[in-house]
């Protein structure tokens, strides 16, 4: 099963993608997580990506597409994968379709997690992320067991640089201009499904399982 998660920044794509990956035993591929790991490890890619990410801008397609195309050709992707944060522009979606087309494959579902902008800023200001293992928390809805510490790996959890309110506004603007057109793109392909992302997390997940099948 090959799935794309669509939705505004903070809509809950990552939260749902992790659960989908567990339930259906497919890899979770998050371009945001890949870039953040590269930043942490000080790679050339990380240095380039950071300049864009900290501003709330998109990393250029030429740095992003090859990375994903290489990843989805790895062995663990044979039975499918869930893409989180990619594609984010029409050229990225076209590059993905072209790469899959070459091996006679196509995406099965594009799931749009729909959350209005008003809810987003609140969610992001409460989000805390572990820069070591990628786990995500929310100060109110999913607090860690010990304040400020990741349950999974014991590292410190922090407010992401791009979750500051002024950067969130910029990311929302970029989302509406560059990513939202993908909703029509996948609607035209007949694979778009929408879920109400304002519901509690487990309700959102139930709605997704209803779409994908148990
Ligand atoms: P990325 O990491 O992909 O960020 P994003 O799309 O902005 O998404 P987020 O990770 O912010 O949110 P999410 O939807 O996954 O929500 P989450 O589940 O964490 O990208 C970061 C940057 O990298 C981009 O700005 C760009 O610069 C670059 N980049 C990445 N991919 C790129 C690409 N393809 N092309 C170019 N550039 C790229 O949830 C958010 C919070 O809400 C959490 O605290 C969570 O606990 C909480 N929450 C989740 N669900 C619920 C719920 N149902 N109810 C209440 N709270 C909830
Ligand atoms: Zn951790």
From TrEMBL:
Chief place where the protein resides = cytoplasm
Tell me which Pfam families the record gives.
ADK, ADK_lid
Which residue ranges does the record annotate as region NMP?
30-59
Which species is this UniProt entry from?
A: Roseburia amylophila
Which residues are Zn(2+)-binding?
A: 130, 133, 150, 153
GO-annotated biological processes: AMP salvage
SUPFAM superfamilies given in the database record:
P-loop containing nucleoside triphosphate hydrolases
- What binding partners and quaternary form does the record give? Monomer.
Q: What is known of its domains?
A: Consists of three domains, a large central CORE domain and two small peripheral domains, NMPbind and LID, which undergo movements during catalysis. The LID domain closes over the site of phosphoryl transfer upon ATP binding. Assembling and dissambling the active center during each catalytic cycle provides an effective means to prevent ATP hydrolysis. Some bacteria have evolved a zinc-coordinating structure that stabilizes the LID domain.
The EC number of this protein is 2.7.4.3
Its name, as the record gives it, is Adenylate kinase
Transmembrane stretches, start-end: none
GO molecular function, one example? Answer: AMP kinase activity
Sorted keywords for this record are: ATP-binding, Cytoplasm, Kinase, Metal-binding, Nucleotide biosynthesis, Nucleotide-binding, Transferase, Zinc
Pathway given in the UniProt record: Purine metabolism; AMP biosynthesis via salvage pathway; AMP from ADP: step 1/1
Residue span, Adenylate kinase active site lid domain: 127-162
Question: Region LID: start and end of each range?
Answer: 126-163
Give the similarity note.
Belongs to the adenylate kinase family.
Upper lineage ranks? Answer: Bacteria, Bacillati, Bacillota, Clostridia, Lachnospirales
Instruction: Read off the PROSITE patterns from this record.
Output: ADENYLATE_KINASE
Q: What class of enzyme is it?
A: transferase
Q: Where does the UniProt annotation locate this protein?
A: Cytoplasm
Where AMP binds, per the record, is at: 31, 36, 57-59, 85-88, 92, 160, 171
Record-annotated residues binding ATP? 10-15, 127, 136-137, 199
Output the Gene Ontology cellular-component terms.
Answer: cytoplasm
């Amino acid at each position: 099963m090959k799935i794309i998660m669509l939705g505004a920044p903070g809509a809950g794509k990552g939260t749902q993608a992790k659960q989908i990956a567990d339930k259906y035993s497919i890899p979770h591929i998050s371009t945001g997580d890949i870039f953040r790991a590269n930043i942490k490890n000080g790679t050339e890619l990380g240095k380039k990506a950071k300049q864009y990410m900290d501003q709330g801008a998109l990393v250029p397609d030429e740095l992003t597409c090859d990375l994903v195309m290489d990843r989805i050709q790895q062995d663990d992707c044979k039975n499918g994968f869930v893409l989180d944060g990619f594609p984010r522009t029409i050229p990225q979606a076209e590059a993905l379709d072209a790469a899959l087309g070459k091996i006679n494959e196509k995406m099965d579902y594009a799931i749009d997690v729909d959350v209005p902008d008003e809810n987003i800023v609140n969610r992001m200001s409460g989000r805390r992320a572990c820069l070591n293992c990628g786990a995500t928390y929310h100060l109110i809805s999913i607090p860690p067991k010990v304040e400020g510490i990741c349950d999974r790996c014991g590292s410190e959890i922090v407010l992401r640089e791009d979750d500051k309110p002024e950067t969130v506004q910029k990311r929302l603007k970029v989302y509406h201009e560059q990513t939202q057109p993908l909703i029509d793109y996948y609607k035209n392909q007949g694979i778009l499904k929408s879920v109400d992302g304002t519901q509690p997390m487990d309700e959102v997940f139930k709605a997704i399982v209803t779409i994908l099948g148990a």
